[in-house]
């Protein structure tokens, strides 16, 4: 049996017929071909699949597609606009906060939610916000610094390009 | 449909769950969800508690309540549980409410997330130990999904919400076609991953009875790493400086979380209330060795953790 769902993904209304067992992550990657969101562990431990569901970061591997019927989802693909990187993305590039890049989409989405609820986070608050995003190669120092830089740039430019 | 095997009831349709159970190769292959695989369960999203209850009763033993899904979906993925129906209660309005009535009774709906508990000023200010326990669970992303009631219904011996709710004398409001009943937290857990809920019964609310104004609460947890982890040992306490009553509960040291017999701190003048609590904790727990720690380590760390807890709760009063 499949279920008809309708959701908004990065501002676009999408409809799909999904089996109950399909996760939001699978819907995004396999049906909508938004492959920026990564599957790491598949059990909510690593945060690589983090997306914003109605504005809040969640691990999309532990959300069923059928559960998000009527909801709003934001993914890494919604960050850049008109070919321009978002302030956060640019700060990651400038700060060398990307090495293999696998954790980066999830990191950016967690950081995006943090900067929305707290435009001037302390390093402790940044660390707490990305505690659910594991990075095994870049190192957290550069990532925390990049988020701090993005926060400063956004405040300096009156809120950045996405808020 | 006839299943064509002796021992099966003729004419009774076989569920996909049974098919999967009987085919070990299918089980091995199905290590995760993917779109190509057949749906092994169905899904309903009731709008009322009544509808949720009815679906649960009609679903028989194969139906499960889906709240945050952060435990259930992992269990399904790992084939530890194979429900044939998930009943999503997140859009039942009354189950999303945190409220305090005029008597001071706090009530947390079964769909309320841990993140919501942490952000609710009425809880943070009144029962900081409850907010601390919620904040110690998993990560920001998971706390946006995981629920207080789900943490309890999963019935892990390490459930971080259990000790503080035991110490606060909480009750669970459960509902089934037979009606509603209130289950004291002390009776809820019956074993590792087991509760006293019947197959057709769902938890609707977690109820914390009124406590005196000056009540102090705290939660402590020992884990392997500084980031998110399950508890090696956790403990929580509620202390009323007016009456001198101190309630302490401990998790991860027995098949179920354990509430110790209350200690009267005023009466224990001259002796150390902490010693009494530590003695009772030793007698009431039976830690085992597992992937997170050895039984010996748990026994050794428990008094340390309890001393920290009591320092926080009693302050100067604890050091007579």
The CATH architecture assignment of the largest domain in chain A turns out to be Roll
- What's the CATH class label of the largest domain in chain A? Alpha Beta
Whole-Å distance between the termini of chain B?
75 Å
CATH superfamily of the largest domain in chain A: Beta-grasp domain
CATH architecture of the largest domain in chain B: 2-Layer Sandwich
The H-and-E topology of chain B, N to C, reads as HHEHEHEEEHHHHHHEEHEEEEEEEEHH
Poorly predicted runs of 5 or more residues of chain A: 158-163
Largest sheet of chain A: 5 strands, mixed
Total domain count of chain B: 3
What report would you give on this structure?
The complex is a heterodimer of chains A (163) and B (320). Chain A has a five-stranded mixed beta sheet with strand order 2-1-5-3-4, with helices on both faces. Chain A is α+β, with helices and mostly antiparallel strands and 163 residues long. In chain A, β3 and β4 form a beta hairpin. Chain A has two domains: 2-78, Ubiquitin-like (UB roll) (Roll), CATH 3.10.20.30; 87-156, Orthogonal Bundle (DNA polymerase, domain 1), CATH 1.10.150. Chain A starts with a strand and ends in a 7-residue tail after the last helix. Helix content of chain A is 33%, strand content 17%. Chain B is an alpha+beta fold. Chain B folds into three domains: 16-88, Uridine Diphospho-n-acetylenolpyruvylglucosamine Reductase, domain 2 (2-Layer Sandwich); 96-208, Uridine Diphospho-n-acetylenolpyruvylglucosamine Reductase, domain 3; 216-314, CO dehydrogenase flavoprotein, C-terminal domain (Enolase-like, domain 1, 2-Layer Sandwich). Chain B has a five-stranded antiparallel beta sheet. In chain B, strands 11, 12, 13, 14 and 15 form a five-stranded antiparallel beta sheet that branches. The longest helix of chain B has 20 residues, at 295-314. The chains are: A alpha+beta (163), B alpha+beta (320). Chain A binds chain B through residues 1-3, 18-23, 26-27, 30-31, 42-44, 47, 50, 53, 56-59, 62-64, 66-67, 69, 110, 128-129, 131-132, and chain B through 32-35, 37-43, 45, 66, 69-70, 73-74, 76-78, 86, 88, 90, 115, 138-142, 144-145, 227-228.
